[in-house]
Amino acid sequence: MIPMIPYYSYETQCRQLPLPFPPQHQNVQPGLEYLMCPQPISDNPGYKGSGKLAGKIAIITGGDSGIGRAVAIGFAKEGANVAIAYLYERSDAEATRQMVESYGARCLLLEVDLRQPAYCKEVIRRTIEHYGRLDVLVLNQGVQFPQESLLCISDEQLENTFRTNIFPMFYLTRAALPYLQPGSSIISTASVTAYAGAPLLVDYSSTKGAVVSFTRSLSLQLVDKGIRVNAVAPGPIWTPLTVSSYSADYVSTFGRDTPMKRAGQPFELAPTYIYLASDDSSYVTGQVLHVNGGVMTES
């Protein structure tokens, strides 16, 4: 008798098996999800919404792909309509829109350069114009440019990393605050590198440390207004940022150094953002939640 070999979907395998990724690299950042192999898993078919975000309006920066796409899909399943801000990745953004709309939600696409304060104001203005309100602000945009030495970080790279990763936090929140009501939520994407450090990512890690401080300080400033401010600190996650940042050889072992011996998939972070956006976290503010495959950090 031939033994039965159990079938594992890739979704199951990504949870249980330390599968390596095929070597690959994209030369332009942000990367494009539709070019990745395998495609990141943004939607967990097993996750069924229960109306946790019914009627809410959310802005998600970097929502065209990766973590942002997974968050947009998760929010849609829970009843929220979303606005997605992205830089130039139109094909990815359109794919995300279709996924969001397949769950009965609305999705506004906003192609903007968030490094410019005027465009951040435009994101808020167009969202309010389109939906009439704003309840959740997810600050998720980011770039990283690995360098072997601090001496290799040019002034241009340093400014671009900070202008992309941290400046829009201020620009967007400043523009959004007049529209946020008690019960609203601001959620930023930090990183395990803010706690564990990363020798190839000194400037990126510094911006993520700034995100942590931004989260803690702003939460104290807004707590009396009933607006909660939190962050999520992912570990290595299979997204376009990975393949557009690292060499093909590095990509092939990406995430294998975590206790779980694998990188995470974007859908594995979405429930954390849903929790922080919903009333389930009504007593949570100023916190950073770690989703990193078992890496121990001092939070």
Automatic annotation (TrEMBL):
Keyword flag Oxidoreductase: yes
Pfam families linked: adh_short_C2 (PF13561)
Positions in coiled-coil regions: none
InterPro entries given in the database record: NAD(P)-bd_dom_sf, Sc_DH/Rdtase_CS, SDR_fam
CDD domains membership: SDR_c1 (cd05355)
Annotated keywords: Oxidoreductase
Keyword Oxidoreductase: yes
NCBIfam families: PRK06701.1
PANTHER family associated with the record: NADPH-DEPENDENT ALDEHYDE REDUCTASE 1, CHLOROPLASTIC, NADPH-DEPENDENT ALDEHYDE REDUCTASE-LIKE PROTEIN, CHLOROPLASTIC-RELATED
UniProt record similarity statement: Belongs to the short-chain dehydrogenases/reductases (SDR) family.
Protein name listed in UniProt: SDR family oxidoreductase
Native source organism of the sequence: Paenibacillus alvei (Bacillus alvei)
